[in-house]
């Protein structure tokens, strides 16, 4: 029979720096990065289910802001239609608010930071540096196929905007991944494989963050 006990604290010294302040709140943050359609959102749902993180998709927060009729809504919508990166202060405010509002202290920040300015501004404003960066690596051919098949009615999932998003990813977002890679913080995943296989690789990375450890006792 299995006994469920609390997982031991297995955070390494290197990762302790990730527990920074958000007001009075200490949080652990993982940035989930990768090209459009690489499977970030899909795998984040799996991580939430198995490892007790809260998923904050920067894109979803921006789309919710458009829907809420906020004064920034039109500007955000126009930028998303063009595949451009929304000004840092707008996105950072939404992420900060979401982290403060949520009781959890472990967050997956999906699709942010998208450029060096996003990254530097986030670190300056929140004083949070990520425990690590999960990077989903996938070819443009495969990502294009996935985006064209996504079928969620998104204004940016058309071939013209997709090509712009790929260009922005290569020119602006890859340097962020390189920045963290130089700090040995990037965990790169082969995202071209089928969803369950990608999650096997993701699981190995998140094992230290397991919600429970199940101990099987021989009887
Ligand atoms: N490993 C995979 N293999 C095939 N299709 C996938 C895979 N991961 C995600 N998808 C599909 O591709 C599309 C884009 O995935 P999504 O998670 O929304 O990507 P992102 O958040 O990186 O833009 C979705 O329709 C999703 O169901
Ligand atoms: O931090 C962010 C996240 C998203 N976006 C905008 O939202 C779009 C969709 O991003 P999302 O992460 O939802 O989807 P992806 O392109 O990764 O599939 C991007 O192309 C940008 O226009 C942004 O400006 N800043």
Automatic annotation (TrEMBL):
Positions of a ribonucleoside 5'-phosphate binding: 63, 84-86, 111-114, 154, 165
GO cellular component entries: cytoplasm; nucleus
Residue sites binding CMP per the record: 118
Cofactor binding note from Swiss-Prot or TrEMBL: Binds 1 Mg(2+) ion per monomer.
One of the record's GO molecular function terms: phosphotransferase activity, phosphate group as acceptor
Primary role: Catalyzes the reversible transfer of the terminal phosphate group between ATP and AMP. Plays an important role in cellular energy homeostasis and in adenine nucleotide metabolism. Catalyzes the phosphorylation of pyrimidine nucleoside monophosphates at the expense of ATP. Plays an important role in de novo pyrimidine nucleotide biosynthesis. Has preference for UMP and CMP as phosphate acceptors.
Quaternary structure and interacting proteins, as annotated: Monomer.
UniProt protein name: UMP-CMP kinase
